[in-house]
Amino acid sequence: MNLNVIQVILVVLVSFLAGMEGILDEFHFHQPVVACTLIGLVTGQLVPCIILGGSLQMIALGWANIGAAVAPDAALASIASAIILVLGGQGRAGVTSAIAIAVPLAVAGLLLTIIARTLATGIVHIMDRAAEEGSFSKIDFWQWVAICMQGLRIAIPAALILAVGATPVKAMLNAMPSWLTDGLSIGGGMVVAVGYAMVINMMASREVWPFFALGFVLAAVSEITLIGLGAIGVAMALIYLNLSKMGGSGNGGGSNTGDPVGDIIDKY
């Protein structure tokens, strides 16, 4: 699929915003489900890109910057794989190949992240000197320079992929053997499971396990739509919050921990 000039500009703009949001984390443009959806919206390939974004979001659930450890670059993986999916012109059939490409891109994006953060360290020292001078205008200027640098971290690779064009990208996707795409797809599926398990492990407690079990069972009922599951989840959250406000006062004279669900579990 070939993109016109307006679509190319919009794709680069979305890429720039995704790069900035990787640091600002305000509007979550860097999250795969948002980034891929925006790319699909501006290119007219909304449905395949939403499917890609949802799949990548499950993978990225377990990615987090912990201490000095830097997580794979979800923004670059999302933007680059979505562009490749669009240029490949395979629609939903190309989602598997795009996911297979996204994971290596996320790891490769670590190099760009390290370079950007190393340069940002120097900018911080410049801002320190501006603060000593009492120059708020310089501080504001260099703050914008640092943020724009993060945007270029994603926008430049996106522009390079667009410059390559649809024909080479499509030829590359068609040249990938089935054993490679299938293997990477299986590996990506395993990463999804590991990422989701990491999130559950961080959130798991005696109080939330009953809700997880109920959600797991309800999700298996095919007649309940995602909207229905969301409504059930909101209702359960409200019930839990209201019980928490009660402070476990009705636990029969037992210990009052402020968590009524935990009190009930401790009782049994």
Explain how this protein is built:
The protein is mainly alpha-helical. The chain contains eleven helices and no strands. It has helices spanning 5-24, 32-43, 46-60, 74-88, 95-133, 136-164, 166-175, 178-203, 209-219, 226-246, 260-267.
Work out the number of β strands: 0
- What's the alpha carbon Rg, rounded to whole Å? 23 Å
- Enumerate how many helices there are, as a single number: 11
The structure class reads: mainly alpha
Supply database-style keywords:
single chain; 268 residues; mainly alpha; 11 helices; 77% helix; globular
List strands and helices in order, with pairings.
Elements: H1 5-24, H2 32-43, H3 46-60, H4 74-88, H5 95-133, H6 136-164, H7 166-175, H8 178-203, H9 209-219, H10 226-246, H11 260-267
Please outline what is shown here:
It is built from eleven helices and no strands. With 268 residues, the protein is mostly helical. Helix 1 packs antiparallel against helix 2, helix 4 crosses helix 7 and helix 5 packs antiparallel against helix 6.
